[in-house]
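Please review the protein record below. Tell me whether the encoded fold seems credible here:
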Amino acid sequence: MRPDTPAENVDHNAEAARLERTADRYPEDAEALLVQAAAHLELAGDRPAASSLYDRLLAAQDGLENPFLVRALKAANLWEYGHEAEARAIIEGVRAAAPRDPAPWVIVAEALESHDELEQAQETFTEGARVLLTDVPEPPYSTHPLLFGRHRVRRMLGLAHDEWDTLADTLHTSPISLDELHDPKRVWSLGSDNPAELEAEISRLRAELGTFREALSRPFPVAVLHWPASELSELLTAYPSLESEYPSHEEHLATIEESLRELSSSGTPNLGIVSGTVPSYEAFAASEGMSPAEVSLLPQYATTLAARGRAVEWPPQRGTACWCGSGRVYGECHGE
């Protein structure tokens, strides 16, 4: 989500400027591009400029897909250059809104943690887990950092394990346990003269690095293409030969849900849905030198949208609106 290349290896100001120019050319991707640009500015040490980009995004909040993510990032950035009161106010606003996306919860909780507000960090991680994971049989991959962060802070506070800590241990795949990785006494081993203690700490650091690399290399979702009703009508009017692929909008929606459930039952992880628009599809077809009427182009278009970060996670989080746009809760719509 955020670049982590050291400043000495990348001109972060130049990269931020490039991303801003790209956002102007592709407004449909402006949110993701400007969030990345702001992250580069943070890494370059220009935190006020990063805040300006977050403000630019929030000024168009009605069009944002992830407004609470932008607010959380802004709060974390503000706190780093002395605007603690404003950062705390934003963090409280994010917590009160109880977003259904785990990322804002993790960001504001880690901001509190990094400033030694461990009790508040633990409460924030716990609130996020309660909102997103109550009565959820299997925590989605995107919620794992929430559970891992909560485990880490609770270890620093010396709290006893509870059910969610045990769940975090179960989800953790590294050969070194979370209890060992999150041991508050680890820092002592860094100053030790005992070769065995130093070797053990090197092993723990390697395990953590492996976990970070796995998260960064996680591929974009296997995504199924969804056409909103108005877009599908426009698509079929312009390219009637695609009617064989989309007999009706209702059948199209049913096919999406059925396909995703089949993929899930076959063990395919990291599933998502991307919504297409006719102008964007036509532009993609032109870039590929193909006619939009070509059925084989549809899955390529879906993959491209997913690679550009346009996919939404499937199945949706508990209590969230259905992916089809009906306005009903997923569990009462296509999740029945």
Notes: The mean pLDDT is 86. The first helix runs from residue 12 to 25.
